[in-house]
């Protein structure tokens, strides 16, 4: 079986040395290397060109999204490209990833997208990095979605219309949903794929990222919440219930009787339940995260009423 033609699309904004490491990990592994820059001011554009990448600079007058950047890179690929590796600019691709992924794809013609294990490079740098590393550890086998790093067949990706550019987050699950509806499969392989550098060292960074996830949940549920997919409906409801509904109901009830505050015990009970499955640290942040998720969901619906999108240019994972 002939070796497929593989190109790569890397996206980034002010990734600095991480971008150079990302591009270096792809050189010699792919045919064409495309780098799409979203308004960097740290010399990323010049550095990428020096490393031999074809650079696309996005128009800064339009809102940046990861989906828009990826589509701009995909538009640069020639029709003879078979596979495209999508990579975030703060990731390094494992040297053995392509051989493992290509072998699987060639043996499974119904699969359009494969991803492997994305790991945090410095999981012990902060609790937030560690939470990211746990988040990347998704179940093996056929999956509903991939993340930002994945190897895809270009033809079905283009037939599906590419990424939805107006999504500020959650663009990969939304694309994978459309691919699955077209009859394609998504698989997570038991193979090392990328090393990611979150550099998430402050609570505020975690809060913003989690709030953005809530925004994506609500938007995804609005787009594809109908049966049979029910895309992110449960995630949105959980966020609104635990992060907003219950606290508001308890606070309102306490104005009538102070006994209503006893209902707050539902939170330590939920924490205990989650800790048995996730461990204490992850359980605490999972429950705590319902508040920023709920705020993000409400943010989406508020902006939807106003008829405009929230301008989030930071699409770090």
UniProtKB/TrEMBL annotation:
The chain crosses the membrane at residues 240-267. The keyword Glycosyltransferase applies. InterPro entries: Glyco_trans_2-like, Nucleotide-diphossugar_trans. One of its GO terms (cellular component) is plasma membrane. Its main location: membrane. Keywords: Cell membrane, Glycosyltransferase, Membrane, Transferase, Transmembrane, Transmembrane helix. The keyword Membrane applies. It is found in: Cell membrane. SUPFAM superfamilies: Nucleotide-diphospho-sugar transferases. CDD domains: Glyco_tranf_GTA_type (cd00761). Residues 9-120 form the Glycosyltransferase 2-like domain. It comes from the Bacteria. GO terms for molecular function: glycosyltransferase activity. This is Glycosyltransferase. It comes from Parasedimentitalea maritima.
């Amino acid at each position: 079986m002939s070796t497929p033609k593989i190109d790569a699309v890397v996206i980034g904004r002010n990734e600095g040395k991480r971008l150079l490491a990302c591009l270096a990990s792809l050189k010699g592994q792919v045919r064409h290397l495309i780098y799409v820059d979203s308004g960097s001011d740290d010399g990323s554009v010049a550095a990428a060109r020096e490393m031999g990448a074809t650079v696309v600079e996005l128009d800064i007058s339009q809102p940046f999204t990861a989906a828009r950047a990826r589509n701009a890179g995909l538009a640069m690929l020639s029709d003879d490209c078979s596979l495209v590796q999508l990579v975030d600019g703060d990731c390094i691709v494992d040297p053995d990833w392509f051989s493992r992924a290509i072998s699987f794809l060639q043996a499974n013609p119904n699969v359009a997208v494969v991803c492997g294990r994305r790991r945090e490079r410095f999981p012990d740098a902060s609790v937030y990095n560690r939470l990211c590393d746990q988040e990347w550890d998704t179940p093996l086998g056929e999956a509903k979605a991939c993340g930002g790093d994945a190897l895809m067949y270009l033809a079905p990706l283009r037939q599906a219309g590419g990424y939805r550019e107006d999504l500020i987050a959650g663009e990969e699950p939304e694309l994978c949903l459309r691919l699955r509806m077209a009859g394609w499969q998504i698989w997570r392989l038991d193979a090392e794929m990328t090393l990611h550098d979150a550099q998430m060292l402050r609570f505020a960074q975690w809060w913003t990222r989690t709030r953005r996830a809530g925004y994506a949940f609500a938007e995804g549920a609005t787009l594809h919440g109908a049966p049979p997919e029910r895309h992110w409906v449960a995630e949105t409801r959980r966020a609104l219930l635990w992060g907003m509904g219950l606290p508001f109901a308890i606070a309102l009830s306490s104005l009538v009787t102070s006994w209503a505050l006893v209902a707050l015990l539902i939170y330590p009970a939920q924490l205990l339940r989650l800790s048995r499955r996730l461990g204490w640290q992850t359980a605490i942040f999972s429950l705590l995260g319902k508040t920023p998720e709920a705020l993000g969901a409400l943010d989406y619906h508020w902006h939807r009423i106003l008829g405009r999108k929230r301008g989030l240019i930071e699409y770090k994972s």
